Amino acid sequence: MTDMNLLEQFIFYFRENGLYVLSQFSRHFLISIYGVLFAAIVGIPIGIVIARRTKLADWVIRIANLIQTIPSLAMVSILMLGLGLGPNVVILTIFLYSLLPIIKNTYTGMQQVDHGILDVGKGMGMTSFQRLYMVEIPLSVSVIMAGIRNALVVAIGITAIGAFVGAGGLGDIIIRGTNATDGGAIILAGALPTALMAIITDVGLGFIERRLDPASRRSRA
């Protein structure tokens, strides 16, 4: 197959199946978002706790690291035994894989806050909770955002595997292409939007991360 024929088939596939690709694109992105969102809800408080109780930090991060050593396809297969087929398996897989970058970045961001600033807040009569949400979180939010950014980019790749367990998404199109006799164009129709989603997500969250950076805010002021 020549490059021109491949391009023509690619364009033809999008012309005929554009709405289907768009629906799978949306499904793919939502599955990724849900998994990372749940991980952030759990991981950020854990990162804050281990930043205050540093003796727990090594154990918590080791456990999160251990999860990362399990291949994603194996993780999906293991969870499928308990949850069956469908997107919930993929969301839980993303949740587990997203814990490490979110917990670790939250812990790192909280540890990098200048203790002198916290002492000033304490001297002003601020409670521990007030120092947390008025000082520590604003100063560490860009580092936390970097962890979420990394987790979401990885999640987009993991979601593609979800097609093997009936979760749908762009991975479903890729699998259809691999099963077709001449499915190069179909594979591209699933792979290119997946790559585009990862790039746009990385650039977009990177922009937000820089905007939330205290040093960046001071330079703009």
Number of domains: 1
Structural class: mainly alpha
Tell me the fraction of residues in β-strands, as a range. under 5%
Please count the beta strands (DSSP E, at least 2 residues each): 0
The rough form would be described as: elongated
Helix content: over 70%
Terminal-residue CA separation? 57 Å
Q: What's the story with the biggest beta sheet?
A: none
**H/E element string?**
HHHHHHHHH
Stated plainly, the CATH topology is called MetI-like fold
Structure description:
This protein has one domain (about 25-215): MetI-like (MetI-like fold), CATH 1.10.3720. The chain is about 85% helix and about 0% strand. It has helices at about 5-50, 55-70, 70-85, 85-110, 115-125, 130-160, 170-180, 185-210, 215-220. α1 crosses α7, α5 (about 115-125) packs across α6 (about 130-160) and α7 (about 170-180) packs antiparallel against α8 (about 185-210). The model has no long low-confidence stretch (mean pLDDT about 85).
Write the SSE topology.
Layout (H helix, E strand, L loop, with lengths): L2 H50 L1 H15 L3 H12 L3 H25 L3 H9 L4 H34 L8 H10 L4 H29 L1 H7 L1
Describe this protein with a few key phrases.
single chain; about 220 residues; mainly alpha; MetI-like fold; 9 helices; about 0% strand; elongated
Summarize the structure.
The protein is mostly helical and 221 residues long. It has nine helices and no strands.
